[in-house]
Write a structure and sequence with these properties.
This protein is α/β, with parallel strands linked by helices and 391 residues long. The chain contains 15 helices and 13 strands. Helices cover 34% and strands 16% of the residues. It binds zinc ion.
Length: 391
């Protein structure tokens, strides 16, 4: 039975090693390898090789395929002194990784020889507790949670759809939430708009939502816009810098405005709509999938516009559709999963059935097509005067 020392000696003969200087040359090269830091978290937070990805040794085998799906990718593994990384490199080799080396002397030598280091951003203890259920998911983890805390999502409407999406996005720790709504809370809203309460009757919805969100999660900065989205203000609002737009508007003028602005600003839109027992969700990501005008180049005549019908909505339906919108927005912010780009998800609350329809880009689309014919905002006439702006 070999001793640890003998085993380490043996392993080192079976793997490739680079020293700190060679590693620096690789890092400075045209195609730097993936630097994998297999130390424990308390070592990682003290400093790391710039751009390195942290995977504690104990999680290496279970996470590596997600971090490096391409087994031919060049990888440099390091730990503090070069022993844990030697075993890690051997294990990766056994998993079929073809181009793995271990940093001899580890991070200790790297640092001692004056090579550059990053001080990784980490969550403080309170945030580690608050978001612990995210940290337990490898696809999110600490890096993903930091990404969420850095992300900025704009909600159009603090109504039925905006209520659950804003609450879940806030709970998830999205750092900045913009809310565009010029409406005030009235008693007919409370059957479904759960971000508001009876106490807030008569308050501006954007302010009421801000209070609820800040009580839920003080990490979130809420930017209320107490105005109705128009051709006059849309560029100013979008210029505040948003990664994703969650569209909870129920009227055509706003929907077309959001679409055209999002294409021109290059911001993905998570679109949702609801009517009685039926809801729909999709993601319009400019130039990667269709936009709203690829499907409906122009608004329908007012008498045919579904949002003009005196239809109600089952109170829970916006909860379901708005939550699906939050799900898509979180995926987009994290860069994980398969967003609903080019796919329209339909939900029927009465049968409890989901359906999916494929949506395609239209090369003749007046906004995102090859020869756009619409290049300026259009303020469509209000179809249903007196109706609330948002579902
Ligand atoms: Zn289009």
């Amino acid at each position: 039975m070999p001793s640890y020392r003998e085993l380490l000696q043996q392993v080192k003969t079976e793997i490739g090693e680079v020293d700190a200087r060679q590693a620096q040359d690789l890092l400075d090269g045209a195609e730097p390898p993936l630097f994998l830091d297999v130390r424990e978290r308390d070592e990682w937070v003290e400093g790391s090789v710039p751009g390195a990805v942290h995977v504690p040794r104990g999680n290496l085998e279970s996470r590596i395929e997600q971090i490096a799906p391409d087994r031919s990718r060049e990888i440099v593994v390091y730990c503090a002194g070069g022993s844990r990384s030697a075993f890690a490199a051997k294990s990766l080799g056994e998993m079929g990784y073809e181009n793995v080396t271990s940093l001899a002397g580890g991070f200790t030598d790297w640092k001692r020889n004056g090579h550059p280091m990053d001080l990784p951003r980490v969550l403080d203890d309170d945030k580690r507790r608050r978001y612990s259920r995210h940290l337990l998911i490898p696809e999110v983890g600490e890096a993903g949670q930091l990404k969420l805390l850095d992300s900025r999502i704009l909600l159009i409407g603090a109504g039925g759809l905006g209520s659950p999406s804003s609450l879940y996005l806030a709970a998830a720790g999205v750092g900045k939430l913009g809310i565009v709504d010029d409406d005030r809370v009235d008693d007919t809203n409370l059957q479904r708009q759960i971000v508001h309460s009876t106490q807030e009757l008569g308050e501006p919805k954007a302010e009421s939502a801000r209070r609820t969100i800040q009580a839920l999660n003080p990490d979130v900065e809420v930017v209320p816009y107490l105005e109705r989205l128009s051709s006059e203000n849309v560029d100013r609002i979008l210029a505040d810098g948003w990664d994703v737009i969650v569209d909870g508007a129920d009227n055509f003028p706003t929907r077309y405005l959001v679409n055209d602005a999002s294409v021109w600003h290059g911001i993905p839109v998570v679109h949702g709509s609801i009517y009685r027992f039926e809801g729909q969700v999709t993601v319009f990501k400019p130039f990667e999938g269709p936009c709203y005008r690829c499907l409906f180049p122009q608004p329908p005549p007012p008498e045919l516009a579904p949002s003009c019908a005196e239809g109600g909505v089952l109170g829970v339906l916006p909860g379901i559709i708005g939550s699906l919108q939050a799900n898509e927005a979180l995926k987009l912010a994290l860069g994980i999963g398969d967003p609903l780009i080019g796919r329209l998800l339909l939900f029927d609350a009465l049968t409890a059935e989901f359906d999916e329809v494929t949506l395609r880009r239209d090369p003749a689309c007046p906004v995102c097509g090859e020869e756009p014919t619409i290049t300026e905002y259009i303020d469509y006439v209000e179809f249903c005067a007196g109706r609330p702006a948002h579902a």
